[in-house]
Amino acid sequence: MNMHSVLLYGCAAVVVVLGSRLLVALAAKDRDETPPPLALLRTWRRPVPIAAVGLVATMVVLGVAQVVAPAMIDALERHPHGAWWRAVTALMVQSSGWPQLLFNLAALAVVAPVAERHLGPWRMLLVFATSGVTAQAVSMAGWSLQGGGDSVAICGLVGALATWYAVRGGVVALRRVAPLIPAAGLVLCLLTNNHGMGLLVGCTLGAGLAIPTRPPLAA
C-alpha cells in the first residue's frame, strides 16, 4: 500500500470514527447513557425533522428511479467537459451502483436528522447543497471528471457538525478532537479527493452557524 492510500484510508477512518462519536454525542445530548443505536433513532421522533424527512425521501425516490432507469445515471452524473448544471445533478445519482446507493442512503438517514436538530432545517439544507455542489464543481474542474453521488454533501454535514461541536459541544475531550475532521478534510483536498472539499466547505459553514438564530428542535 503506497502513501497516498495510507493517507486516504487514514482520513476516512478519522471522519467515520470521530464523526460517529460526534453524532452519538449530539443525539444523546451529551448527558445520558442511551445506547448509540437508540440515541440515533431518537432523532427521528417528534418534533419530526421535516427537512431531513424530505431530503431522505427525495434521495430514496431518486435511488429507485436510477435502478428502474439506469440511463438516468449517465444523464445526470459528472462528465468530462460536461455542462455546469451537472455539478448539481451529480448529487442526485449514485454512479457506483448498489453499494454506494445503500451506504449513502443509510449515512444520510443517520446524519441529516442530527444536523437538522442542531443547525436548523434551512441551514442543514444549505450546508448539504453548498458543500455538495462545490465538491462536484471541483471534481468537474479536474479532480474526478466522471461520476456522481451525495456522499460529498453528507461529508459537508459531518464537517459542519464537527466545527459546531468544537464551539458548542458539551464533552470537553470530544470537543478538543473535533478539529481533526477539518484537518482530515484538508489532507483529502491535498490528495485531490472531492470528499475533502465537501468536508472543508461544511466545516467553514458550521463555524459560521455555531451560534443559532433560532432555538433548535427538541431532541
What does this structure look like?
By secondary structure, this protein is mainly α. It has a single domain, classed as Up-down Bundle (Rhomboid-like fold), CATH 1.20.1540. Helices cover about 70% and strands about 0% of the residues. It has eleven helices and no strands. It is globular, with a radius of gyration of 17 Å.
N-to-C span: 43 Å
* Global structural class: mainly alpha
Mean pLDDT: 91
As a percent range, the share of helical residues equals over 70%
Please give the CATH class: Mainly Alpha
User: Strand share of the residues?
Assistant: under 5%
CATH architecture: Up-down Bundle
Give the topology string: H per helix, E per strand: HHHHHHHHHHH
Number of strands: 0
| Uncertain parts | none
What is the overall shape? Answer: globular
Count of helical segments? 11
Main β sheet profile: none
Radius of gyration: 17 Å
Return the domain count: 1
What is the CATH topology classification name? Rhomboid-like fold
